Q: What sequence folds into this?
C-alpha cells in the first residue's frame, strides 16, 4: 500500500510539474499571451528620401535598411518609387537597397516603408564578431595623449566591458587635457566614437559603430550612434557619449559600420526623413502572421497549427475535461447526486447549441414525456433491448415534432434540439425510470435535478471565453487537471452534503 501511495504521489507530482513547466515555457519563453485580448505593438516606419537628380547622368541611390535578423520581424516591407529599379543586397552584415534610373531630373522623392513587430521572432544563431584587432597608427602628441588616457583606463577596468565603458567616460571628460587634445575641438558623437575606437585599437580591442532608430511615435528621428564589441560570447553595446552599457529595448538596429546612411550617384542634396507611428494587433493573430513571415515555429506544433474548422472542434473537446472536473468536485466533495459523470457533461455540451434556458426546458419536457412512455412500456412486460428501442424512437419523433412546431411558431432556437444526443436522452430516461422503481420518485427527482444543475454549471464554466482561450492555447494545463483527478481518486473524506445528515444524527442523540 505504501509503495502504491508513493507511486501515485510521484505520478501526480510529475504531471503537475510537467504541466506547469510547459505552460510556463509558453508564457515566459515563447511569450504567448495569457489572455485573448492581449495586443502587441506594430511599428510603421517610413523613410522619406529626397534629392535633386542631375539631368545628364544616370541616378543610383543606395541606402541601408534594417537587417531584421535578431529582435524584430518584418510583416511588410515596401520600396515606393516611380520609374526606378529596386534591388536589395546584403553587404558586410548589412542590408542595402539600391534605387536606379537611366534618366531623372529635378527634385526626386523615394520612400522605404517597414511594418515590424518585436514578438515571435525566430530564434537565430548568434552572430559572432572579432575579438582582436590591429592598432591604428598614431604618432606625435596624439600618441602621447592616447597612452596617457589608456594608463588609468587599464587600472580601473577588469574586463572588456569595463574597459570600453571606462574609455568612453575618459574621452567624454571635458576636464581631461589629453581627451581635449585628441578631440581637437570636435565634440560630436561621431568624432568621440572615432577617438574611442582609436584608444581601443591600441589595446587591441575591436569595436564597431552601430546606427539605430528609436521606436517612438510621432517624433522626428535621426539615426543614433552606438558602439558595440564582441567579448567572445555576446555583443556588448555602449553609448559613445555616456558609456551606458546595453542597447535599450526601444532601439532598432539599422546598419553598422562607418559608411553613411545614404549615397547618391547622379544627384545631390540627399536627405532622409524618418517618421514612425504605432498601432496594436491581437497577439495571437500577430503570432500567426509572424510565423508565416519568418522561420519561427512557436505555433507550428500547437493547436493553432490545425485548420480553422478543426480548431473549432478542439475548442469544444479541450473543455470536456473542465466539465468532468466540475462534476467530479460536485460529486466527490459536495456530494451532489447525478446520473454518472459523463451524462451531465454531454448534456452541458448540448446546451452550447440550444443555450442554457431553452435547453433546460427542452431537456425537462423530453425527459418527462420519455419517463411517461417508459412507465407505460413497463406494464407491457417488455425486455430491456426492445424497450430501449421504443424509447429511442419516441425521442427521435419527439425531437422532430418539437423542431417542426418551433419552426412554425418562429422559434428557430427550437431547431437546435435536434443536436441533443438522442442516445444520451434515451439512457437518461431509462436510468431515471430504474431509479424511480428502485428508490422511489423522490430520489429519482433529486437525481434528475442534480444532473440538470451539474450540467448547467458545467456549461456555464465551459463557456467562459477566457477559460476556453487559456485551455486551448495552453493545453498542458490539462496535465495538472489529471493530477488533481488522481488525487481526488484517493479522497475518502466526508462530503459537504453529509453535514446535514450528521446534524440530524446529533439532534437524535441529544
A:
Amino acid at each position: 500500500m505504501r509503495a502504491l501511495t508513493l507511486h501515485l504521489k510521484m505520478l501526480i507530482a510529475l504531471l503537475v510539474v510537467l504541466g506547469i513547466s510547459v505552460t510556463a515555457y509558453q508564457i515566459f519563453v515563447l511569450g504567448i499571451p495569457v489572455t485573448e485580448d492581449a495586443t502587441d505593438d506594430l511599428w510603421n516606419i517610413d523613410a522619406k528620401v529626397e534629392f535633386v537628380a542631375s539631368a545628364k547622368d544616370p541616378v543610383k541611390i543606395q541606402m541601408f535598411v534594417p537587417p531584421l535578423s535578431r529582435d524584430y520581424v518584418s510583416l511588410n516591407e515596401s520600396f515606393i518609387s516611380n520609374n526606378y529599379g529596386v534591388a536589395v543586397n546584403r553587404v558586410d552584415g548589412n542590408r542595402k537597397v539600391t534605387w536606379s534610373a537611366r534618366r531623372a531630373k529635378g527634385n526626386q522623392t523615394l520612400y522605404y516603408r517597414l511594418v515590424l513587430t518585436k514578438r515571435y521572432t525566430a530564434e537565430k544563431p548568434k552572430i559572432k564578431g572579432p575579438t582582436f584587432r590591429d592598432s591604428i597608427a598614431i604618432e606625435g602628441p596624439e600618441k602621447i595623449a592616447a597612452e596617457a588616457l589608456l594608463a588609468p583606463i587599464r587600472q580601473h577596468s577588469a574586463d572588456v566591458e569595463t574597459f570600453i565603458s571606462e574609455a568612453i567616460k575618459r574621452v567624454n571628460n571635458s576636464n581631461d587635457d589629453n581627451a581635449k587634445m585628441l578631440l581637437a575641438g570636435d565634440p560630436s558623437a561621431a568624432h568621440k566614437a572615432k577617438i574611442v575606437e582609436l584608444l581601443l585599437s591600441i589595446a587591441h580591442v575591436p569595436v564597431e559603430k552601430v546606427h539605430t532608430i528609436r521606436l517612438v511615435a510621432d517624433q522626428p528621428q535621426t539615426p543614433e550612434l552606438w558602439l558595440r564589441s564582441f567579448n567572445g560570447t555576446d555583443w556588448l553595446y555602449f553609448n559613445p557619449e555616456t558609456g551606458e552599457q546595453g542597447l535599450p529595448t526601444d532601439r532598432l538596429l539599422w546598419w553598422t559600420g562607418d559608411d553613411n546612411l545614404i549615397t547618391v550617384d547622379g544627384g545631390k542634396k540627399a536627405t532622409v526623413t524618418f517618421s514612425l507611428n504605432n498601432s496594436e494587433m491581437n497577439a495571437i493573430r500577430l503570432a500567426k502572421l509572424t510565423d508565416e513571415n519568418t522561420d519561427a515555429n512557436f505555433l507550428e506544433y500547437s493547436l493553432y497549427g490545425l485548420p480553422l474548422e478543426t480548431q473549432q472542434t478542439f475548442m469544444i473537446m479541450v473543455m470536456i475535461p473542465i466539465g468532468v472536473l466540475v462534476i467530479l468536485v460536485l460529486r466527490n466533495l459536495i456530494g451532489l447526486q447525478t446520473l454518472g459523470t459523463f451524462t451531465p457533461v454531454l448534456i452541458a455540451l448540448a446546451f452550447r447549441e440550444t443555450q442554457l434556458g431553452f435547453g433546460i426546458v427542452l431537456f425537462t419536457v423530453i425527459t418527462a414525456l420519455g419517463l411517461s412512455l417508459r412507465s407505460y412500456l413497463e406494464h407491457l412486460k417488455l425486455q430491456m433491448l426492445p424497450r430501449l428501442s421504443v424509447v429511442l424512437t419516441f425521442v427521435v419523433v419527439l425531437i422532430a415534432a418539437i423542431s417542426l412546431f418551433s419552426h412554425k411558431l418562429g422559434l428557430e432556437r427550437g431547431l437546435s434540439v435536434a443536436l441533443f444526443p438522442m442516445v444520451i436522452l434515451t439512457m437518461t430516461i431509462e436510468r431515471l425510470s430504474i431509479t424511480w422503481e428502485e428508490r422511489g420518485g423522490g430520489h429519482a427527482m433529486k437525481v434528475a435535478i442534480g444532473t440538470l444543475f451539474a450540467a448547467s454549471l458545467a456549461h456555464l464554466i465551459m463557456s467562459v471565453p477566457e477559460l476556453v482561450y487559456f485551455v486551448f492555447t495552453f493545453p498542458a494545463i490539462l496535465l495538472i487537471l489529471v493530477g488533481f483527478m488522481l488525487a481526488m481518486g484517493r479522497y475518502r473524506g466526508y462530503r459537504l452534503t453529509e453535514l446535514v445528515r450528521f446534524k440530524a444524527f446529533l439532534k437524535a442523540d441529544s
